[in-house]
Write a structure and sequence with these properties.
Strand content of chain A: 5-15%
Radius of gyration of chain A: 28 Å
CATH superfamily of the largest domain in chain A: Butyryl-CoA Dehydrogenase, subunit A, domain 3
Oligomer: homodimer
Number of domains of chain A: 4
Number of helices of chain A: 27
Mean pLDDT of chain A: 89
CATH class of the largest domain in chain A: Mainly Alpha
Number of strands of chain A: 11
Shape of chain A: globular
Low-confidence stretches of chain A: 1-52, 502-508
CATH topology of the largest domain in chain A: Butyryl-CoA Dehydrogenase, subunit A, domain 3
Largest sheet of chain A: 6 strands, mixed
CATH architecture of the largest domain in chain A: Up-down Bundle
Helix content of chain A: 55-70%
Distance between the termini of chain A: 24 Å
C-alpha cells in the first residue's frame, strides 16, 4: 500500500484558517508547486532553507564531544569492531531464521573468544569496566550476541565464580572461558520470575549416596526461558530449594534457595542426559540468536560437590552450615552477587538509545517535506513537533551516558573494596538506572521509528530490530516495576535512618538538605521567578528535582504508616504503590541530573560547554514541565513560572536542533555498525536505493 | 538467560522499612515460604486471595456486554472466521519467512474471494460498514492479510471506482473483484510521503500518439512502499504530475497531481513490462505478508483513456477540462475520496487494542507473584501498579469502540448522502480518530507486553507480532502528526466561522457552548467541588474536556494571529505546532467521551450499566489527571479537587479490576483467533507448556 497518503491541500487550508488573506496565498502556493515539482533533488538539497526554518548554529567541537563521550577502553572496543569488520561472514543479515540466527550467534561468540583474542571471563573477574565496554561494542554487532555472551560469562560463569568456592573455579573456569563448557543460568520457572524465593524445583540431599537429587515437582516448576538451554548448553546452574531429610520426621527441612551445577548434555556427543527433559521456548519477539529453553528434572543425581557453597554448605553427614544466619540473608547474598547484569543492561540500553537517536536525527535533517510559500521544502527537524519528539530524547542520551559511566565506576569500586556502603549504593543505583533507562529507551525506540515515517519501517533501518531486541531489557535481570520498588524501599530506609540520626550514604546525601528545604516553607519570591538565568541555573534545576523527591518520600512514609495500621504492611505498600514508583523515578532523575551537571562542569572547551549546558537544561526543564502538575499542586512553581518553563523547553529544543547533527556525531558510531541507510553520515537516499537493488 | 531475576528479600525489606516490627515479620515470611514452596499449582489457584487483594466483584452480564460490543454484521464476520477455522492450511505460523508469508497472504486472499463466497469490492461499494466488519475480522486472522485486502480493494479498487468514470469500472471492476487483476496504489515516492503534491513522477500527454508518457525523472521520484508491487501486482494506479505541452512554449504546463492506470506486469506470463523497473522494498518491521516494492518508469506509454478522469480530463487535442476550478480543489477532491482507508485503520486499531488487552488482562489474573505474610501469592492484577497500567487501557478499548462505530456509521451516511457537512465532519473525524487511536494502541501494545513480563516476550503470545504489524498504522494513510494538524485546522475554521456568525457542524457544536463558559469566568465554587457524585457526573467530565479544547482553541487563534505578523502564516503555524497538536488531541478526546456517554446511556441492563459507568468515569478522569497541570494552571481545578481526582482514578482502577475479566470477555474474541496461550479463557499455563512440547 502507499505509505503516508496525505492531503496537503487540507494542511494548506489549515494555515489559511489562521490567515486573513488565504486565497491569495493558496494561489501563490499552487504556482510554487507547479514551479518546483520537477526540480532536481540536488537543487533542492543545495538550497538554503527558508525563513521559517532559521536554525541557530552554535559553534561546537565534534572531537571534544567524541572525546567526552568515548567511555572507557576505546582500544578494546576498536579491536572487537575491527575484527568483525574483516569478517563479513559473521555479519547478521537483516532477515534470518531463528535456527540460522542461533548458529550464527554461537559462531560469533566462538570467534570472539578463540580468534579475536578476547577473554571476557578474565575481563569480568579482573576489570568489570573492560567487560562492560566489550558488551556494549558487541551489542552494536548483534544484540543477541551480547546477550549470549552475557549468559555464558556473567550468568553461568558469574554464578560459578561468585556463588561457588575455589574447587568450582578450579574445575570449571577454564572450560567456561574457552567455551568448551557452554552453560545456562536456570533460575526462572514457569510460575516464578520476580519472586525467586517462590521457585519450586527441589534439590534433596541423599546421605546414602552423598548426592543431591534434583526434581521438578510440578508443571509450574519447569525452568523456563533458560538461555543456552535449547541448543548449546552442557551445564546449568540450577536454583532450587535445598531440602535436607530430618532424622526425627518424615518431612524434609527446606533450607531455602541454593544454586547447583547440573550437567545437562554429554560432553562427548552433546546428547541430553538421562532424567532431563529439554524443550525449545521457541520464537521470541526479539533476540532470536539466543536459544532459550525449558527444563524439567526427574530424579537427576549430582555429587554433593556441585552445590555452589560459598554462602551455605552441606556436610558429608547432611548437616547444614552457613556463614550467614538466616534464609533471607543467604538469599540476599546469593542474588546480590548478580547485580552486574543490571549494570550491563543499563549501559547497553544507553548504547541502543544513542544508535536510534543517531538514525532518527540524521534522517530528520535530510528529509524535507512541505515548506513556506515560494520556497523549498524544509527539513522535518525544523518542525516544532519533530523537535519535541527528538530533542529531549537526545538530551536523555547524553544524560544517561554520564549516569551509567558513573555506575560502572562505582561497580568497579565495589568489586575492589567490598565496602558495605558502596555495595548498598550500587545495588540501589543499578536497580534504579536499569529500570529507568530501559523503560525510557523502549519508549524512545517507538518515537524514533514513528518520527522517521515509512522509511523507519524498513527493517534495514534498524528501529524494529533494536526495539524487539531491547524490549526485554525491561523485564530480565529484574522486572522494572519490581526494581523501582527496591529503590523506593532503600529511600525509605534512608529516611528512617535520618530521623533516627543515622548516617546517610553518599548518593542519597542530598535528601538531607532538601528535606530541610521542604520542611521549611517554599519561598513565594522564588516560586514566581521566571527569568532564563534562574531557570537555567543548575542549582534551581537540581533543587526542583530533589524537592520533589523529598516531598514524595516524606508523604510516602506518612501514608505507609497510616495505611499499615488497617491493611498491614503488605497491603499498605500496595495501596501506595504508584506513589512509591513515582518516588523511585523521581530520585533516579535527580541522580542522573546531578551526574550530568558534574560532567558538563568538567568540559574544558568553552563553546562545547555552552552547548552541553543547553542539552542539560533541556533534560532538566523538560522533566519538570512533564510533571508540572505536581509542581503546581505543591505551589513550588507559580503559574507564570510554569508558562516560562514551557516556553523555555520549546526554545531549548529549537536551539539544540541547531547542533543536533554534531551532537549525534559525538556518539561516534561508525557507519559500519549503524548500518541503517537512512542514518548514515552521507548519501543516505542513494544508499537506501542501492540497498533495494537500484544501480 | 533467566528472565526477571529478582531479589524478593529486598522487596521484603522494602515493606519492612515502613514497618516497626520488621524482624518478626521476616521470620514469619520465611516460614511461610518453607511451608508453601512445594505446594501444588492447583491448590494455589484454588485458594482465595488474601486481605490485600480484596476484589470488588460487581454483578455484570457478559452477554449484555457482548451484545453491546458486537458491532455490525456479526454473521458476516462469523462466516469468514468459520471458513478459516476449517482451513488450518491457511493459518499463519508463529515464525515464517518473508517469501512464505507473502505467498500465504495471497493464498488467504484468494481463498476469501474465490472459496469463502465473500465479495469485498461489492461490500466496499454498496455497504462500507460490511466492508469494515470484514476487514476487522480478517485482521484477527493475519494483519498482513487485512492490509493486502485493503491494498487490492480500498486502494487499487477504490481509486478506479472513485477517481475513474464508468469506462474504467466497466473495464477493470470485475477483474479487481475476482483478483484476476491484482493491483497497486502508487502514490508515495522515495522523497515524498506526506507532501503528496510534491511528488515528481510525470505523465506527459503526447498528442501525436494520444498517449500519456510516464517517467521517473529522479531518484527521489521512485515510487516506494507500493503494496502488491514486489510480487503480485499486474496494474498500478500511478499518481503523477499531469504535464501538457504548451503550443506557444517549449515548456510543459503542469496541471497538478492526477491518477493513471499503468499495467506493470503481463497478464499472460506475469513478466515485468518494458520501461518498468521493479525492486523489492525488502524485509519490514512487520506486515511481511505484504509485498511492498519500488517502481521506476522510463517512457512508459499508456492510452489517454487510462487517466482516471472523474475530476479532470484531457481531450484528444490536448485540452484540459475539469469540473473543479483549481489545482488545489481537484487535489482535495482526488484525495478526499480515499478517506475510507483511515476509517478502516481506526477501526482495525481498536480490534488490535481489544486483543492485546484481553491477553494481558487474562494473564494478569492467573499470574500470581508475592503476597502478604502467611498467605498465598496474589494475582499481579491485584497490584496497584498493574491496575494503573491496564485498567485505563481497558477503558480506552471500550471508549474507542463506540467512537469508531459512530465513525463507520457517519462514513456510510456520507457515502449515501454526499452531504457537504457530513463530508467535512467525516474527514476531520476520521483523521483525528485514526491518529489518536493508532498512537494510543501503539503505546498500549508496549504496555501490555511489559505487563506480562517474560511470557509476554514469547512470539506465540502475540504482543510482538501485533506491535510490529500495527506500528505502521501510525504512518500510512496519513502520518498522525500531519492528520492532527488537519483536525486543528478544521477547529480553527469552525472558530472563525463562529465569530463570523456562521453555522457550526453538528460534531463541533459543543464548542459554541463551552466557549461561552470559557469566555465567562470559571466558578470558584465548582473548581473546589471534589465529591464523588460531582466528579463522576458525565456533565462535569465532558465540560472539563470541552473547556480545555475551547481554551486551547481560543489561545491558539490568538497566538497564530500574533506570530503570523512577523513569521508569516507558515512560520506562525510551526511556532504554535505543539499547541495545535494538543488542541487536536483534546478535541478528539472530547468526541470520544461524548460517544461513550451516549453508549452507556443506551445500555438497558441496570447492573451492566453501572459497570460501564465505572469504565467511562475511569476513561474521563484518568485523562483529566494525566493533564492535571493544564487544569491547575488555568485554575479550572483547585488543589483539593486535583487530589480527589487522583484518588478517584486509583479507586476506579481498583473497581474496574474487579470486573476486568468480564469486561474482556465482552469483546468476545474466540480463543481460536486470540491464539496466545497465556490469553486463553482457561488452562493457560498448560496450553503454554504444551506449545513448547511438553506432554
Amino acid at each position: 500500500m502507499a505509505l503516508a497518503v496525505e492531503e496537503q491541500s487540507l494542511a494548506i487550508r489549515a494555515m489559511a484558517a489562521a490567515d486573513e488573506i488565504s486565497q491569495r496565498r493558496l494561489d501563490r502556493i499552487a504556482s510554487h508547486l507547479r514551479a518546483t515539482s520537477l526540480m532536481k533533488d540536488e537543487q533542492l538539497a543545495a538550497e538554503v532553507c527558508a525563513a521559517a526554518a532559521k536554525v541557530s548554529k552554535r559553534p561546537v567541537s565534534v572531537s571534544v564531544l567524541t572525546h567526552l563521550m568515548a567511555g572507557g577502553y576505546p582500544e578494546d572496543r576498536q579491536k572487537v569492531l575491527d575484527f568483525f569488520l574483516k569478517r563479513p561472514d559473521l555479519e547478521t543479515p537483516v532477515e534470518i531464521t531463528k535456527e540460522q540466527h542461533r548458529e550464527l550467534a554461537y559462531k560469533q561468540l566462538l570467534a570472539i573468544v578463540r580468534e579475536a583474542g578476547v577473554n571476557p571471563m578474565k575481563y569480568l573477574m579482573e576489570d568489570p569496566g573492560q567487560y562492560f565496554a566489550l558488551l556494549e561494542a558487541v551489542g552494536y554487532i548483534d544484540m543477541s550476541l551480547a546477550i549470549k555472551l552475557g549468559v555464558q560469562f556473567s550468568l553461568w560463569g558469574g554464578s560459578v565464580v561468585n556463588l561457588g568456592t575455589q574447587k568450582h573455579r578450579d574445575k570449571y573456569l577454564e572450560g567456561i572461558s574457552t567455551l568448551r563448557y557452554p552453560g545456562c543460568f536456570a533460575m526462572t520457572e514457569l510460575h516464578h520470575g520476580s519472586n525467586v524465593q517462590g521457585i519450586q524445583t527441589t534439590a534433596t540431599f541423599d546421605c546414602m549416596s552423598d548426592e543431591f537429587i534434583i526434581n521438578t515437582p510440578s508443571e509450574g516448576a519447569t525452568k523456563w526461558w533458560i538461555g543456552n538451554a535449547a541448543v548449546h548448553g552442557k551445564f546449568a546452574t540450577v536454583f532450587a530449594q535445598l531440602c535436607l531429610p530430618s532424622p526425627d520426621s518424615h518431612l524434609d527441612t527446606n533450607m531455602g534457595v541454593h544454586a547447583f551445577i547440573v550437567p545437562i548434555r554429554s560432553l562427548e556427543d552433546h546428547a541430553v542426559l538421562p532424567g532431563i527433559e529439554i524443550r525449545d521456548c521457541g520464537y521470541k519477539v526479539g533476540l532470536n540468536g539466543v536459544d532459550n529453553g525449558a527444563l524439567r528434572f526427574h530424579d537427576v543425581r549430582i555429587p554433593r560437590d556441585n552445590l555452589l557453597n560459598r554462602f551455605g554448605d552441606v556436610s558429608r553427614d547432611g548437616k547444614y552450615t552457613s556463614i550467614l544466619p538466616t534464609i533471607n540473608k543467604r538469599f540476599a547474598a546469593t542474588l546480590g552477587e548478580l547485580v552486574g547484569g543490571r549494570v550491563g543492561l543499563a549501559y547497553g540500553s544507553v548504547g541502543v538509545l544513542k544508535a536510534a537517536a543517531t538514525i532518527a536525527i540524521r534522517y530528520s535533517l535530510i528529509r524535507q517535506q512541505f515548506g513556506p510559500p515560494n520556497q523549498p521544502e524544509i527539513s522535518i527537524l525544523d518542525y516544532q513537533s519533530q523537535q519535541q519528539k527528538l530533542m529531549p530524547l537526545l538530551s536523555c542520551a547524553y544524560a544517561f551516558h554520564f549516569a551509567t559511566e558513573y555506575l560502572v565506576e562505582k561497580y568497579g569500586e565495589m568489586k575492589k573494596t567490598h565496602d558495605d556502603e558502596v555495595i548498598a549504593d550500587v545495588h540501589a543505583l543499578s536497580a534504579g538506572l536499569k529500570a529507568y533507562i530501559t523503560s525510557y529507551t523502549a519508549r524512545a525506540l517507538n518515537t524514533c521509528r514513528e518520527s522517521c515515517g515509512g522509511h523507519g519501517y524498513a527493517a534495514v533501518n534498524r528501529f524494529g530490530g533494536l526495539r524487539n531486541d531491547h524490549d526485554i531489557f525491561q523485564t530480565f535481570e529484574g522486572d522494572n516495576t519490581v526494581l523501582l520498588q527496591q529503590v523506593a524501599a532503600d529511600l525509605l530506609k534512608q529516611y528512617k535512618a535520618k530521623f533516627e540520626g543515622g548516617a546517610l550514604s553518599v548518593t542519597w546525601d542530598y535528601l538531607r538538605n532538601s528535606m530541610g528545604t521542604y520542611l521549611s516553607q517554599t519561598n513565594p519570591v522564588v516560586t514566581h521567578r521566571d527569568g532564563h538565568a534562574h531557570l537555567r541555573d543548575p542549582h534551581f534545576q537540581l533543587d526542583a528535582f530533589q524537592y520533589r523527591t523529598a516531598r514524595l518520600l516524606h508523604t510516602a512514609a506518612l501514608r505507609l504508616r497510616k495505611h499499615s495500621k488497617r491493611l498491614g504492611s503488605f497491603g499498605a505498600w500496595n495501596r501506595c504503590l504508584n506513589h512509591l514508583l513515582t518516588l523511585a523515578e523521581s530520585h533516579i532523575e535527580s541522580v542522573i541530573l546531578a551526574k550530568f551537571i558534574d560532567a558538563v562542569d568538567g568540559c574544558e572547551d568553552k563553546d562545547t560547554k555552552k552547548v552541553l549546558n543547553l542539552v542539560r537544561d533541556l533534560y532538566a526543564l523538560d522533566r519538570i514541565w512533564k510533571d508540572i502538575g505536581t509542581y503546581r499542586n505543591q505551589d513550588y512553581v507559580a503559574p507564570n513560572k510554569a508558562k516560562a518553563i514551557h516556553r523555555l523547553v520549546e526554545w531549548l529544543s529549537f536551539e539544540v536542533r541547531g547542533v543536533a547533527g554534531s551532537l549525534v556525531d559525538g556518539f561516534a558510531i561508525p557507519d559500519s555498525l549503524l548500518r541503517a541507510p537512512i542514518g548514515l553520515q552521507s548519501g543516505q537516499y542513494s544508499e537506501y536505493s542501492h540497498y533495494v537493488g537500484f544501480d
